[in-house]
Amino acid sequence: MAPSKESSSSTSPLEKFSKWIQLKIYQFEVTLALYMFTPTEKVVFYSILFLISSLTVIAMVLYFPQHVSFIVGRAWFYMHGDVSAEGAVRAALTGSSATAAAVAGKAAEATATVVREL
């Protein structure tokens, strides 16, 4: 007997969502032929998939902003020429040399302290 409309319309949104998730998992497993794997093979496959996905997300979070900044800088250079790029390079060099001098000073102080203690 076919289910009546009352029984299909009386399902809760949670049940509908659960059925939808089950359908998506089934489609995923059929598409990649995972339904043929043993449970151990599935664990290994899903572990590798999780590792690759998480490393990709971490790489995007860490390096994508720097990449976008680089691309914007290149676009700025191609549109406006060398004037602002030259100023940016000078600022970066003076800022890095000042930072390097500060770090070198702190390292020298730490070394002197260690030598005195020995």
From TrEMBL:
Origin: domain of life: Eukaryota
Record keywords: Endoplasmic reticulum, Membrane, Transmembrane, Transmembrane helix
GO CC, alphabetical: endoplasmic reticulum membrane
Membrane protein topology class: Multi-pass membrane protein
Main location: endoplasmic reticulum
InterPro entries (alphabetical): Ser_palmitoyltrfase_ssu-like
Any one Pfam family match given in the protein's UniProt record, by short name: SPT_ssu-like
Positions of transmembrane segments: 44-64
Name the record gives this protein: Serine palmitoyltransferase small subunit B
Cellular compartment(s): Endoplasmic reticulum membrane
